[in-house]
Each structure stands twice: as structure tokens, then as C-alpha cells.
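Objective 1.3, modelling of assemblies. Example input:
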Amino acid sequence: MINLAVKEISHSWVRYVLTAVGLGLLIGVTLTMTGLVRGMLDDAIALIRGTHADLWVVQEGTMGPYAESSTLYDDVYRNITGLPGVAQASNVAYLTVQVRHANKDVRAQVAGFEHDQPGEPPYLIAGRPVAKSRYEAIADIKTGFRLGDKISIRRTELTVVGLTKGMVSSGGDPVVFVTMQDMQDIQFQKDNTTIYNERNRLSANPKLNRPGSPGLLQAVTEAQQSNQKVNAVLVRVTPGYDPAVVAETIKRWKHFEVYSYEQMRQILQVRVIANALRQLGMFMVILAIVSTAIIALIIYNMTMGKIREIAVLKLIGANNSTIVAMILQQAWGLGIIGFVVGKATATLISPLFPKRVELLPFDAFISFLIVIAICSLASLIAIRAALKVQPASAIGG
Amino acid sequence: MEAIRMENLVKTYGSGSTAVHALKNVSLYVNPGEVVGLLGPSGSGKTTLLQCLGAVIDPTSGRIALNGETVFDNGWKINDLRALRRDKIGFVFQAAYLIPFLSVLDNVALLPMLAGKSNEEARKRAKELLAVLEVDHRSHAKPAELSGGEQQRVAIARAMANQPPFILADEPTAPLDSERSLIVIKLLTRLAQEFKTAIMVVTHDDIIIPRFKRLYRLRDGVAHEEQGQNLPFPD
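Predicted structure (C-alpha cells):
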């Protein structure tokens, strides 16, 4: 049996292919958005995945340190280290700032870590690990920094000694790893004018600067200028211990909030980037509806353009299934060509996006099935119109 | 036995005071190998009669038999009208109505394929018919590349593809000039005799009307049989 759909497509293939390419661009945008969602989901947990920690200890009553601010004293880790089941505990701190380099600045998340402890960069792709306790940094390649680059973070100048890859914050900003000492300076060190003004304010306060208590003003000034704070303590559990039990011990005895990897993942993926995901999801739904409407219109117009031929086909004995197959095959053809064009477009344009676009083969496969389902759905109006054509309309005009 | 016989056919659209009696009491027949004309002014019921003969609408009452087999009898009809149209009735239209995206060969071969013949068998049959109709040299052309006369000959080949006992030709010469009109009718007459096919030609064409041996004139929903002039075709 002749394949009527293929014959018609090959008869006017230029128009058909151009239509499919137009549709493909639309599919390409949708695929790119799917990739963006995947990229955001993956980026959101890149940092916690890279820490190789089992537990995150944060300020009580908070969801810190990524979703909410959390402040702990930097000696808390010592108390935690002594608890049963804790193999390692280390301070970490995070701050999103503009990192300056060569008269430019890059938005980045600065992460303070301790050497050889959870929270340090998981691997390097160039350079060496931080060897000194001060003024050295490891940057994600997305910052654009190179080995040996001098960078400024607030009042601290550092040298990039190593490069890592795939370490970004939940917002997609690349991470610059620095030592905890540098991090505390970056977070809390004030400029001279600010220190001078604060001292003057304190000494002008009669409650703090009393003649009978000469040491009070000094004690308050020192406390205010102290920078012994971190955002969280990362814990690695001793093999054989249940992380949930260790977490419960820390909560009960030290009065902190403790999150497991899975809980932290949920906080990041479900809470922190939820709005952005909903936004993209809405766009994808709208694009799917627009695509369905466009395909339906194209298929309907193609069918109405050959309504006389359909009447003749019915008159000379063609089955309804022959006509339905012709319309469906043409719609599927549009979908297949459109998908190939869309996939190629998404692959080509995805590196140009500032955020990571993760095009997974599984997503592509599911998208392909959705495109075919949309094409089938969009054909229904045209099929209905074709089936309503009476063979009698071919006779007598 | 007649290739087609119609007895006391009535077709009424609507009911009650708004009923329109398109066919009042039509009886006619066409013998195998015979070409019969069907004439009538606009509104005489020609289209309705053709649609009843073409098994695309149901008459209100009466009987239709094809090759002696009853296909409609006072409300009863055979189940598979689609197969009946495909296998037992050939259609030639005013415009050729060829499928524009199929080649000439495939346009003709499509019918046997729809009837379940293999592609090879169907194309072989199509080639034979195109050769008989002297358009085989255009086998691979698309309908848009053919002249009006060639298109009509391909349409006739398509109508004959399943060797139906009856062909219904609805003003087949309307888009053609006098010379080509005569060629087409001469061809239909030759094919009717050669393949023993009954052909009914609906026409207004004054050039071809005198060539019929027998014709029906439809007036106000009633068919009147007349003897034609049966003039010979010019060489």
C-alpha cells in the first residue's frame, strides 16, 4: 500500500520541513528550559555534595546555612568532636560577594573551610591545594580566574593557587574557597574609619564608659570587634554509627539544629529554588500549550487544504483508518523533525547560558514522547474534520 | 442481466410541509457494454440520482441492483458500501480530482491497492490501463503536469482500475474543448465495449449528446427514457 503521508510530504517537502524547523525552534526552547531546571536542581546541591559531610550543625531554630542565616561560635566544633560517633567536625562559613580581579568583579560565593576537613574543595582540576593558612584561594573555573591571579575580597587579597569545577551555590554563583581565618577576616574585618567611629560611639555611652568600671569599655569594644563566628559545623560520622542517632545526640545535648544530607538536599531543592523552578515550570507549561495549538493549527490547515482529495479517497473506498493514518503520520513527522531540530538547537545554545543547562538523555527521551503525544493530540481536530467529510461531497460538487 | 437497475427510486429530503422530493419515481437501467446519457436541467435531481447510484446517500425507497445483486431495497442496504464503491463502481468527475501528490501511475494503482492487491500487482494493472488510454508515457508525472485531456484519461483509468461493472461519469467533458470532449466519449464507448462495462454519463454537452444510443432525461425528479441519435464519432 502506498504511504500517502510520505507521498504528500515528499511532494511539498520544502514547506513541510520549514514548518517542522519552526516548530523545532519552539521545542528547542522548551528542551533548554528543561535543561535549565535540571541544571538548577543539580547546582543547588553541588556545594553540599562536595563537602562529603554527613550532618550539618547550625544555629537552633534555623534552616541555615544556605536557606537562612546561621551563626555559631567557632569553638563549637570542639564540643561536637567529643561526642560519640563523630569522626570529624569542622567549621564552615559562606558569604556571597563581588570578587574583584583586574578592574572587574565576579559574583561568587566565598566558602571558608579548614584544611583536611569536611567542607574543603572535593577535587582540583589544576594547581594545588591551599598550603598556607592565609591568603590563598581555590576558585571554580566558572569565575574565569586563572592560577596565579590576585583577587580581592573586601579588604583581603588572595592568590588563586588551585582550580576546581562544578562547585556553585544554590543560586548558580561559582564558589571561591578560602581558609577559615581568611573567611573570618572577610566577613568581620572592618575598615579603620568604621573601627574609629564605633570606639567613639561606645566611649560616648555613659553606661559603658563609667568611671567606676575602667575595664568595661575595653571588654565591650573587644567583644564587638571579635570575629570568632562561623555559619555551620560539618560533621562526618564514624563508620558503624547511625547518623540519625548522632544528630539526635547533638540536638539534645548541644541545643543546635542538625540536618542530614537528605534533609539539606530537600531544603535546597524544595525551598531555596522552589520559586525559580515554579517560574520555569509555568513557562514550560505555556510553551507546551502554545506548541500544541501551533501543531493543531498546522495539521488542521494541511488537512483542510486537501479536503476534496479526502472526499475522493473516501468515495473510491479508502478506509477511515487510511485517512487517520495519513494525518497522524504527518503530525508525527512534524514532531520527529521538530524534535531533532529542537534537540540540536538546545545542544548548540545551552553553553551560551550563564547558568548550567543539563541536557540529560532521559529528559530528551521523555520530551520526545511528550512531543509525539502532543502531535497526536493536536491532530484530533484535523482528524475529526476529515472524518466528517462525506464522500457524497465529491459528487456533483 | 443489466449492470445496473434502479426501480421506483424515491428520495425525499426533510419531512412534513418542508419536505423536498428530489427524486419522485425513477426507474432506469444500463446494460453491460452500454454508454447511456443522463440529461437534465439544474434542480432536476441529477446530483441526488448520482449520489444514490454512487452509494453515498440512501434513497428513501425503491430498489437498486448492481450486476443482479440488490444493494438497496426499500430501506435495506448491504453492509459494506465502502467496498461496494471500491469494487463495483467507477467514478469519473467533472474535474479529474486526481490526488495531486501521487504520480499518475500511483493514482491509478491506489484503487487496486485499497482493494488489497499487492503493490506490484496494482502497478501492473495501472500500467496496462494507462497504455490502453495512451497516457502511459506520463506514468511518473504528477497530475499538475498533465493537460486537461490527459488528466481526464488518467481519471478514467482510475475508474476502471478495479474492473467495476458500472462507471458513473459526472460531466467528464465539462472542462474540455469540443475535440477533446469527443475523444473522451469515444474512449469511454470503446472501453465500455472492450471491458463490458456499463457507463452512465451525466452531461450538458451538445457535442456529445447526439452520440448516445440511449439516454435518460431527468425532469422534476422523474427520469424519461429517450432514444439517442447514435451519431458515429469522427475519425
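Helices of chain B lie at 46-53, 81-88, 104-114, 119-132, 148-160, 178-195.
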